[in-house]
Amino acid sequence: MIAGTTKLLGVIGWPVEHSFSPAMHNAILQHTGIDCVYVPLPVEPGDLPKAIDGIKSMGFLGANVTIPHKEEVMQYLDEIHPDAQKVNAVNTIVVKDKKLIGYNTDIGGFRAALSRHHFTPKDKNVVIFGAGGAAKAIVYALAVAGCKSITVGARSQEKAEKFIEPFKQMVDIKAYNWEEQDFRKAHWDVDLLINTTPVGMDGIKDKSLPTFWTDVPLSAFAADIIYNPPITAFLRQARLRGCRGMNGLAMLVEQGALSFELWFDKEPPREIMYEFLVQKLE
Ligand code: NAP
User: Fold this and answer.
1) Does the Cβ of 225 fall within 6 Å of ligand 1?
2) Which residues contact 164 (CB under 8 A, 6 or more apart)?
3) 177 lines ligand 1 (CB under 6 A)
4) Which terminus of the chain has fewer Cβ atoms in its 10 Å neighbourhood, N or C?
5) How many Å apart are CA 282 and CA 277, to the nearest integer?
6) Probe ligand 1: pick from 107, 155, 226, max atoms within 8 Å of CB?
7) Which of 163, 225, 228 gets mutated to test ligand 1 (max ligand atoms within 8 A of its CB)?
8) Can you tell me which atom of ligand 1 is nearest the CA of 200?
9) Cβ contacts of residue 100 below 8 Å, gap of 6+?
10) Could you report the per-residue pLDDT of 153-206, keeping only the tens digit for each?
């Protein structure tokens, strides 16, 4: 029950109606008996500085940050974790002693999701579709985990090349327009394929990625970070090829679990989070 003592958390985004975070976090706050609620915070582009002031002045414990504010928010924070700095995006704010500290839990969230599906990225060849915000967190996670090579394909060669620039010192990484023959060649010895584009979500469900499935080894693992719908065309094609795979649900849960740990310094009930979201998405 909400009382005078109830603490506040929320997700800042525009739009936020589609976000699963309020439902997921309130489910575990209730389960753990923590006196706190998690609310949607729809913040229009342009209003972000005022919203961040509000987080501080209204005594929030912290917040999640989602599209389109993950980059812009960094300039309004007092401290930023080096990992978030590296990928130039913050998705979690912790308020500590009136200071706002920014983190990026998509990085650890993706790594934990792979681990939950028993995939170890060390020394593996990776092919990634898309060169946006989530891809940055994923490439950084994979580079830190010691993968052997990363090939990024996007619909714009220019964007893909700019995208890989900050990672060149960390890992063997190449960028292509995904229609190119050299991008196709990367499929020959791929261990992990990842869709980081929204292709496969409602609205662009029928569009398909230029994945050369007939070239992909059967032992490869396919990860789509879309969780709704749970089975995208990308995952369906992976299955038809005989490859194992995962959708974006584990990343969603694990990034939320890491945010919870940052706010409360305790382990969240992960299994409750998984159960809750699986039911919600059925
Ligand atoms: P973003 O920064 O906008 O990047 C999207 C990427 O996909 C860009 O490379 C973009 O290319 C490409 N793209 C967009 N529409 C496309 C289309 N119709 N055809 C081909 N390529 C297209 O978005 P993001 O934050 O990285 O998020 C991407 C997806 O990941 C979303 O579906 C989001 O819901 C999901 N996500 C899931 C989790 C999770 O926890 N499971 C976490 C974060 C994000 P251009 O630059 O050329 O537009």
Assistant:
1) yes
2) 131, 139, 150, 152, 173, 174, 175
3) no
4) N
5) 8
6) 155
7) 225
8) 32
9) 52, 55, 56, 76, 77, 78, 79, 93, 94
10) 999 999 999 999 999 999 999 999 999 999 999 999 999 999 999 999 877 766
